[in-house]
Amino acid sequence: MKRWLMMLCCACAGLAAPALFAASSGPPQPSASTYAQRMQWFADAKFGIFIHWGIYSVDGITESWSFFDGDIPYADYMKQLKGFTASRYDPQAWADLIKASGAKYAVLTSKHHDGVALWPTKRGLNVVKDTPARRDLVGPFVKALRKDDLKVGLYFSVIDWSSPLYPAFTHDQTRYQIKDDPGRWNRFVTYYQDQVHDLTNRYHPDLYWFDGDWEHTAEQWHSKQLRDWIMTHNPDAIINSRLAGWGDYGTPEQGVPIARPPYKYWELCLTMNNSWGWQPHDHHFKSTDQLIRILADTASMGGNLLLDIGPRADGTIPKIEADTLRQIGQWLGKNGEAIYGTVAGIPKDYYAGASTLSPDHKTLYLFIDGDPQGPVLVKGLTNRVVRAWVVGNGTILSPQRVGATLGNAPAPLYVDVPEDTLDPQHVTAIGLALDGPIKLYRDTSKPTQLNPDEPTMRAIQ
Question: How does DSSP classify residue 178?
């Protein structure tokens, strides 16, 4: 993944030029219905698993960046090829764990910036010919995911810092400038796009998760041509925003946005600790409850959570990561209706917490962190609540309108959630079935019973 400064630059670039709904120089745009239909499974999924696996797991160091940034010499980084065995790799067990987590899709790093591919690509380095693993690691996982009825995502870095055709090598060393040798650059473009063609023809992924586009422009990457080729050969595919502005959805990284990102569809990619790949000395793991809260927060803004795990070089998944996934799955098993298939909830000036809505907007789901120490308050809800319940256990609740209001404003709604019905460990979800699509009141009139010239109404100087 990118360093934070680079990530910020990419995010700003993405905000300046949103991916799909772009200018006349863009590809022929699909109709809104076609785009929506293609994106529907992604919008409904809400939760996916990211898997960073590569030779960097041998020594447990930072993927690719460790040599690029000069933390270790490139030659030492590449010595890890000899230790990457995948000797205990069980792709079906991986897929089964992902299914148990409640995730609906997974994204595997088929090739990171170091250029080492996990499948037998004919171009560049790969684990089949260059490591003791000696086999395709992508194909069996794709097959296992589909057996478990999970969508398949493949991460692919357009960068290849190991390729002699690529301009950049390390932070301090550059092989050449594109303007000085455009032919060499064009050979690299053919090289990397041939790899994407190969991934497509072999595995037909449901989702392409590109990375590394920040080093060059969309025109230099020939992003339009690659997108057009993908959509011709895999017309149901979804592409993330990191194909230099030619993707379908936004990809903020690590931090939960304060406000909803400016995309119709978006996905937060997040590590369990502070590292993408396996690093044995990184013990800064987020708790299961923290991750569930992040999932609820993300869904409340209409986004997906792509939660990362980092297997070891032998293919085993650390116990703490596997346990966390199962615990999230247990919570989703009880509360999934408040997450899957939902849309963004109501603004926090109506409910001071995360919320989601059913697609028809007739059910409002509220997420409660811990013990609210009293009734939960919803303001400005015009609808009548026909049923209220604790999603995780079915307990029926009795919300009440309290107090009188002026004009047409609805009275505040208080929902008392008895302590013994709260989730004792994690977030509690409650459902409010409404008498129709949700209607929220917002008073735009000015008070008439007060004199605006009175001192208490004047602005503070």
Answer: G
Half-sphere exposure of 288 (CA within 13 A, CB side): 18
- Token pair 């997108």 is at which residue? 227
Phi-psi region of 177 (alpha: psi -120 to 50; beta: other; left: phi over 0): beta
The answer to whether 83 and 58 are in contact (CB under 8 A) is yes
What single letter denotes the amino acid at residue 448? T
DSSP state of 406: S
225: Cβ contacts below 8 Å, ≥ 6 apart: 193
* Closest listed residue to residue 327, CA positions, set 103, 58, 33: 103
- Domains along the sequence of the chain with CATH: 37-338 (3.20.20.80), 345-434 (2.60.40.1180)
| Contact (CB, 8 A) for 333 and 325 | no
Angstrom CA distances, 279 to 51, 102, 205, 273, stand at: 14, 25, 28, 9
Q: How many CA atoms lie within 13 A of 366 on its CB side?
A: 27
The residues pairing with 390 across neighbouring beta strands, listed in sequence order, are 430
CA-based diameter of the chain, in Å?
82
Residue pLDDT, tens place only, 377-395:
999 999 999 999 999 999 9
Q: Are 55 and 281 in contact (CB under 8 A)?
A: no
Which regions in the chain score pLDDT beneath 50?
4-28, 447-450, 452, 454-461
Q: What is the pLDDT of residues 257-281, one digit of tens each?
A: 999 999 999 999 999 999 999 999 9
- CA separation for the pair 227, 218 (Å, rounded): 11
Residue with tokens 């708790």: 287
Beta-strand pair 363-368/355-357? antiparallel
CA proximity to 313, closest of 17, 83, 39, 47: 83
In contact, 168 and 159? CB cutoff 8 Å: yes
Query: HSE-up of 214 (CA within 13 Å, CB side)?
Result: 17
Tally of CB atoms within 10 A around 236: 10
Tell me how far apart the alpha carbons of residues 416 and 175 are, in angstroms, rounded to a whole number: 66
Q: Decide: helix, strand or coil at residue 206.
A: coil
Q: What is the pTM of this model?
A: 0.89
Nearest to residue 346, comparing CAs of 321, 315, 380, 318?
Answer: 380
Q: H or E element: which one contains 190? A: helix 182-203
* Bridge-based pairing state of the strands 376-378 and 363-368: unpaired
Q: Which residue blocks in 216-318 are alpha helix, DSSP H?
A: 218-221, 223-233, 288-300
